[in-house]
Design a protein that fits this description.
The chain is mainly alpha-helical. It is 36% helix and 7% strand. It has one domain (15-164). A hairpin with a 2-residue loop joins strand 1 (15-20) and strand 2. The chain is globular, with a radius of gyration of 16 Å.
Amino acid sequence: MEAWEHYQKQTYRNRCRILTAGGVMDLRFPVVHDGAIRITDIRVDYSTPWVRQTEYAIETAYYSSPFFLYYRDAMFAILDARPATLWDLDLALIRFFCDKIGIDPRLEPTGEYLGADVDIHPKHPSAYVPRPYSQVFADRFGFVGNLSVMDLLFNEGPDAISYLIW
């Protein structure tokens, strides 16, 4: 994982998208803008109650999904632990979702800048078209793509891997 890149605002490094009763909602992890620029040095801002608000939004959106209650406590424990940096928070969440989906990548930070060529900006949606799966609010919105992997995990549970490798 690119550990030497400069932090870029308004990217998926500190946000994700979920599907709620009102439609798609962006969840954001606020960061401290204190002059740090390297991605590993960006601190998470806990001066507002965003953790509680985020957990409430996730709970409200996914409580009726088939696998939410199975994964909720472990995922919320990551948020409740309040990792100091965005890097640590993102890495903990990536490891959590990979583990629960059944992916075992070797996640190692780079020792120098290698020029990550991945565009993870919400304004540049992915061309990847996922195979539709059951979603909580499909009766209102149909299938909605480009959501957080938590949507897939909470709705498909152990079968989530099959939607990523088809």
